[in-house]
Write a structure and sequence with these properties.
- With about 240 residues, this protein is mainly beta.
- It is built from no helices and 19 strands.
- It is globular and about 70 Å long.
């Protein structure tokens, strides 16, 4: 879909299936940039929208010198990509005056964020949470793009963030404060802007949980997702 952008204000949008507002596809938080995974369809997330700025491209691989000047860049092409259960929305500015400018012609000609053969050394991830007074603990990599950590709740809640390579200035965090499982994604960072933005697990003291950080490349873009689940505990019974 190609849309004409106003010159002086951003544009927020969702994707409605069959033009039905109760079946909206949306990001996991309000005002999310392009290249994010898709949630829904649902009817209860009217505030969760993607946000396009007239001078902003959602493709991070383009350099600043490659961006189209504002006077020639008032059209934007939006696309929804689907690969099995994975869906992604992104967009790119396109030329509207016929001159040679960076343009997306609907073909995947842009370089991916990284590929298997050219990816840099794998990052390490470290959980820092309220149950350890925010000291860092290593996450375990399972070899399939998943890093995980298991914890036992000491109280009814546990809050955490994830540091990349043990760097306190490269932290992964959610959009909101004390984000539960339904608000866990999208993942923001890594940067130092996650003050007061934590994931929060709710349960009963003594329950064990497994936290997972999934890293994947979806349509040439690096995507991370955080989730957790309660681990079942074995109970032994006596026939006495």
């Amino acid at each position: 879909l190609t849309v004409l952008l106003p010159q002086d204000k951003p544009v927020a949008f969702q994707v409605w299936l069959d033009a039905d507002s109760s079946r909206a596809l949306h990001p996991g938080a309000p005002e999310v940039a392009g290249g994010s995974t898709v949630h829904g369809p649902s009817s209860d997330c009217q505030l969760n929208t993607w946000l396009i700025h007239p001078q902003q491209s959602a493709d991070d691989s383009m350099q600043e010198d490659d961006l189209v000047p504002t006077s020639k860049c008032q059209s934007c092409r939006i696309r929804l990509q689907v690969a099995g259960k994975w869906r992604l929305v992104d967009w790119q500015l396109v030329e509207v005056e016929g001159e040679e400018t960076p343009c997306w012609d609907g073909v995947d000609t842009l370089a991916p964020v990284f590929t298997q053969s050219t990816s840099p050394a794998r990052s390490t991830y470290h959980v820092m949470g309220s149950w350890t007074d925010w000291s860092q603990e290593d996450m375990v990599h399972d070899g399939s793009g998943v890093d995980f950590f298991e914890l036992c709740l000491k109280t009814s809640t546990a809050e955490f963030q994830i540091a990349v390579n043990g760097d306190w200035n490269k932290v992964l965090y959610p959009c909101g404060y004390r984000a539960g499982l339904q608000e866990a994604n999208p993942v923001f960072g890594p940067d130092d802007g996650g003050q007061s933005r934590y994931w929060q697990i709710e349960g009963k003291p003594g329950e064990r949980y497994r936290v997972e950080l999934v890293s994947k490349v979806l349509f040439g873009k690096a995507i991370k997702e955080v989730s957790w689940r309660r681990l079942l505990q074995k109970r032994w019974y006596s026939n006495r």
